[in-house]
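STRUCTURE REQUEST FORM
Protein name: Similar to CG1443
Source organism: Papilio xuthus
Requested output: structure tokens
Priority: standard
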Amino acid sequence: MNRKYGMDKPTMQAVWYYGLNLTSNYYMFLFYNFFLHYLPALFLDFYSLLTFRRRVMLKLYKRVMKMANILFYFSMQDWRFSDDNVRNMWRSLSPSDRVVFPFSMADMSWDYMTETFLLGLRVYLIKDDVSTLPEARKKWNRLYYMHQLLKLGTLCLVLYLGYLLVRIFF
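Status: completed
Returned output:
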């Protein structure tokens, strides 16, 4: 749902297209992190240096990694919560009280909650006005095609390197 609504309401401040690689292996996380975050930030800051612009990507990368390290423990654990008290309280409410105090998760619209939550993040946290949505969608499409070209270029590079290795050793 986050992907569905997040792509529908992109932000003007996006620096790259959406991508998510979930892994429970710490070393795979480090691999992804190096190739998908650190190297691109390094290249963009190097480009900024060459064009006399302000370098910000490595600083942003360090902030993101600091947050990832904080969240890593919590995201890698199995957490069990009990909602027995809430269920018992719901069952004890009269039908009229259930209408006045609707907190049954069965009646909750996760689609609506996700869409509202992401729009709220965009407007109130990122400070991206809703009027910029058409322009943000154009930028999002450009980022999508750049992402696809980068993936294609990476695939070609890996295949070429594989070809060179095969040629050298065989």
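Reviewer notes: The chain is about 70% helix and 0% strand. Residues 133-169 form the longest helix (37 residues).
Form closed.
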